[in-house]
Design goal:
CATH superfamily of the largest domain: Dihydrodipicolinate Reductase, domain 2
CATH topology of the largest domain: Dihydrodipicolinate Reductase, domain 2
Bound molecules: 6-O-phosphono-beta-D-glucopyranose
Radius of gyration: 24 Å
Number of domains: 2
Oligomer: single chain
Largest sheet: 10 strands, mixed
Number of helices: 16
Length: about 500
Amino acid sequence: MNTDLLIVGGDGDLALRKLYPSLYFLELNNCMPDNTRIIGMARTGQTRDEFRAKIHTWLKKSIKDELYSEEKWLRFADKIWFGQGDATNPEALGAVKKDFFENDHHLVIYLAIPPMIFGKVCSSIDVCGLNRPTTRLVVEKPLGDSRESFIAINDELARTFSEDQIFRIDHYLGKESVQNLMALRFANDMFEPLWNSRYIDHIQITVTESVGVGNRWAFYDQTGATRDMVQNHLLQVLCLVAMEPPACLNAESVRAEKLKVLNALRLIPHEEVGELTVRGQYGRGFVDGADVPGYREEESDKYEIDPNSQTETFVAIKAEIENWRWSGVPVYLRTGKRLSKRHSEIVIQFKQSKHQIFEENHSKHKANQLIIQLQPDAGIALRLMHKVPGLDAGIPVEDGVLNFSFDEREKKVTHDAYSRLFFDVLRNDPTLFVSAAEVEAAWKWVDQIFAGWKATDMQVEEYQSGSLGPDGADELVSRDGAKWLNEDFELWCALD
Ligand code: BG6
């Protein structure tokens, strides 16, 4: 049966910048049946043509020229409708229902609105009879700012919708490179025997951005890097790296395994928070060829910047997973804004055997490393030792990199993370969406860190914009004898 999509907040920033371009990609890839209808609902009055013209303008701004096809746009535009009204009001929603949904199509409702009105919109959906057994509801972060506030938001949704109707988006799970983690681990048997504390020394998960907080200062100042990135994206990536092989690739199995990882994360005691976490905030600096202001000096005419803000724009955490497979293997998480470049990678650092047969004085023997680059380009590299060519005495060894770049393949990707997630929700496949239990467990772990920071009054450490973050982040790993892979940021370019 056909599925229609209702976007509440259909004229907002998220919808225009992200959602319609991603839906257009489904059209581009012939993944949207012809009789699908996309209804944007918003309070502002406009005609269908005006609405489509606005979407067209944003589409052209947000996608690469080579991905634009006039023919596909026209087919896509044919599917777009506009419904005027305030979705918290059952009468307005009822009118939209009458105009568009008096049929037996399945319905997906996307709430592109602030969570504080989720409850009202859900009850309005219920009152006007749009919550049929097959209706699906899509929501995304911020889903609260603590476990408690998440539970309150979720309770509001759960009053109208059952858990299997709710699709919680984490756009990292829609990324090709993140899904590739599952392929790497579970479609290549060679890794499984090595994937544990016996062979792995530690894991690094890094997501750096060169952008600052821009015009989101007011939102960001209430949020910070830990809530904005760690609670969701980094912990989801950690789950895919650390989870047990699921029995199969359905939502139930995958979510159950991810949840076990989240529940096994050791809660950081207050007295250890200074040693196991680092909070940073960007100061002035130089990024992407330009001088940039510090976080507390950002300019805005919309809101007041707090010159004493203690919000972290960078965080590094040593996480520990207390289970059979991972006990004793630190997982270092690191993310921040206004760093030297946009770069995300996972490093699996293998252990080195205690007994070395190569002479130390002329060998640079290093332990193996598996490096999974997530963005901007995707690739996998394995750092291996090999003999230094030549007539030196003995067998001197040095490290080299076996590189598998997805560049060519990536160039053929004509969709983004949201398209993938739309594709799945329209097909009713929740595997790449996050369960309430996962979100709750992630908040529990993060809440404990915030409680520790508060209890110890831990201040942010300033770092220069354009740098690799505060010195504390290096100290965090060097205490364990580890080192971030920073110096290899150029590795991928060099190997092209
Ligand atoms: C969002 C955060 O969830 O992810 C942003 O709110 C961040 O602050 C963004 O910039 C990063 O996403 P990506 O896909 O560019 O890595």
